[in-house]
Amino acid sequence: MHGYEPIGDRPSDYAVPATFRFVDAHVHLFDHSAPGLSWGFHDPGWEHPRLKGAWRLDRPAFSVPQFRSLVAGLGVDKMVHVQAADPGCGPVAETAWLQGLADRYSWPNAIVGPCPLASDSAPSDLAAQSAHANWRGVRDTGDPAAIGTDDWNRGFAALVGLGGSVDLMINREQFDQAHAVAARHPESTVVLEHAGAPVISKLDSYFEDWRLSLARLATADNVVCKISALSSMALPAFFTESIRRWVMTCLDLFGTDRCFFATNWPMDALFTTYPRLLSSFRTLVEELTPAEQAAVFATNAERVYRI
Hints:
The chain is α/β, with parallel strands linked by helices and 307 residues long. It has 9 helices and 10 strands.
């Protein structure tokens, strides 16, 4: 298979330089002992369209102590938590729990909470979340088709007024809607999650359609691209070459000042290991300058999430 690399079996195979620094900008924590919170993606009866068998990730907790143990020695300096708890838990419960973790452990450095921006309660829900010190914005948990509607714009305006950013988990069918919103609000920060969720296993014609749609979105200077979750989209097998052209296209279109890497952990543990994924990212950008590498691994995420 072209580009296949054997999986290393020693820690030294994935060692990072002593100066390497990584801000993981997309992590999901959980703790089944946390009162009032639940995580449905661990339910054996629930299946994601792509992430089959997510219930295998379940355990009593994957919180800051477990994450710290996982990333020890890999240069992880800061982390951003993105909404993961069930929407039925309410708009503030997860943010409050995460703030408690941050107060105790200093991680997560930034909290991206839940909010369906088109909901009637969005302005008040956002105000309640913003009272927590590490809150930086929200992931829109509503129907992507609502992006740009009057109801959605009202919620988005409230978010921007509070200084928050929005993470959008959308695909190429909604890129033009996101572009229109970003263009109307140049003072805002719009984060495209997971590089727009491309299906990497599809044919070249699909890649070209995704690239052209992404190019239009990238013309909005206030849209940034989070390069993450590609290992879960590289079925049937993940290896560095399977994601190369998708990563490099993001970097080419947005530039190294508007892209940053993230792991989508622990979801991507279904497909690879944390050290191996980080090694793939480092291999893909090894020809960038040291300053450019520092930007996509750390400083861009620090700027976007103000940490």
